[in-house]
Design a protein that fits this description.
The protein has about 120 residues and is of the alpha+beta class. Helices cover about 30% and strands about 45% of the residues. Strands 2-1-6-5-4-3 form a six-stranded mixed β-sheet. The termini are far apart.
């Protein structure tokens, strides 16, 4: 139980760092060769440097805030995080307000891969 509570705290710190746009702190949670789902174009972004570039480009166009609602373990062993995702344009107008699920494959406690599941909500 304690290990899961520690994992949940780490996940919450990851999202807090993302929402602050603190790429360096987010990298503390990512495997160097991480595969990160590209929510806009599909496919994956590979490696920390490419993830940083992806986010930098994204943040120039939109302002996403992603809040974890629940952290569980999926049947296949991945960490499942139900999130509330609000995306605003650069002027602050909400363009998307959805709930999705992020699925994390861990390697040595670091995120090796992140997938996005659309829940339909």
């Amino acid at each position: 139980m304690e290990d899961f509570l520690a994992l949940r705290r780490r996940i919450e710190r990851l999202y807090a760092a993302f929402n602050r746009r603190d790429i360096a702190e987010v990298f503390d949670f990512l495997f160097p060769s991480v595969e990160w789902a590209d929510g806009g174009q599909g496919g994956f972004v590979h490696g920390r440097a490419n993830v940083a570039d992806y986010w930098s480009r994204q943040w120039r166009a939109v302002d996403p805030t992603v809040t974890p609602l629940a952290v569980t373990t999926s049947p296949d062993g991945r960490v499942a995080v139900d999130v509330h995702q609000v995306v605003r344009d650069v002027s602050g107008v909400v363009i998307s307000d959805t709930r999705v699920q992020h699925l994390y494959t861990l390697d040595g406690g670091l995120v090796a891969r992140m997938d996005i599941e659309h829940t339909g909500e």
